[in-house]
Design goal:
The chain has four helices and two strands, in the order H-H-E-E-H-H. The chain is α+β, with helices and mostly antiparallel strands and about 100 residues long.
Length: about 100
């Protein structure tokens, strides 16, 4: 019961008004940014539509461990791909990008 009261008190005191600008940009008010340590410049966030009139913003959960050996094997396999034409996939992509400039 105390936790419900604490949560209610916390959520009621943490309201602020902000304006969405032309390009959809929203500034999180300083009063809220100071209270949470994950809202920093360039931090990644997950934005979810909860209801038509409610959006949540949470810190993005990064994958904590990366199997680098597996990742590099996959990269090498893709780079070595040879299609019906000449060269490998990496060369094709580079040539295609240059041609489209």
């Amino acid at each position: 019961m105390y936790e419900d009261y604490k949560l209610s008190l916390y959520s009621e005191s943490m309201k602020a008004i902000s304006i969405i600008r032309n390009r959809g940009q929203l500034t999180i008010p300083d009063s809220i940014r100071k209270l949470v340590n994950w809202v920093t410049p360039s931090s990644a966030v997950s934005i979810s539509l909860v209801k038509p009139d409610e959006i949540t913003i949470k810190p993005h959960q990064y994958q904590k461990e990366v199997d680098w050996d597996k990742l590099w094997k996959q990269i090498k396999r893709v780079r070595a791909f040879r299609g019906k034409g000449r060269g490998n996939l990496s060369s094709f992509i580079m040539e295609d990008r240059e041609a489209r400039r």
